[in-house]
Specification:
434 Repressor (Amino-terminal Domain), 145 residues
């Protein structure tokens, strides 16, 4: 059994896998293989996707970054730093105030083009994500006068 699998069992506590399946929408078989750490049919290591981790994070009410770290996606130090930055509202406010504004309004395009980290529903947006959002907004607002 993997350390991550043991951690999932610890999080589950007295709940059954069926309860977790019902609460997350993740299949019973997949959850079982995650807890075992491997797929018994292939004997290959089973690593959860970030999307699955997001569902588990919500269900177990634990930090998404913590699960990413435990699953091997993030360095533990990096996870702590991200969590600290998210909690530090003064720093976030200071970073926010550094963006170019027009009439006291932050320009969304400037925010998306900045080097600052932007998160959406627990996921950090990379350069491609930001460019995609800008492209969609350009199409959306092209129709407006």
């Amino acid at each position: 059994m993997s350390q991550f699998g043991e951690y999932l069992i610890e999080l589950r506590g007295g709940k059954s896998l069926r309860e977790v399946t019902k609460g997350t929408g993740i299949s019973y078989t997949y959850l079982s293989t995650l807890e075992k750490g491997f797929d018994p049919r292939t004997n290959k290591e089973r690593k959860p996707t970030p999307g699955v981790l997001k569902k588990l994070s919500s269900f177990y009410q634990v930090s998404y970054e913590e699960l990413l770290s435990k699953a091997g996606y993030l360095d533990q130090t990096e996870a702590r730093e991200k969590l600290h930055k998210a909690v530090n509202k003064d720093e976030a406010k200071e970073n926010f105030n550094n963006f170019e504004t027009t009439g006291g309004t932050v320009l969304l395009r400037e925010l998306l083009l900045s080097e600052n980290k932007i998160n959406y529903k627990g996921y950090e947006l990379d350069g491609f994500d930001k460019e995609s959002i800008i492209a969609v907004l350009d199409i959306f607002f092209k129709e407006r006068p």
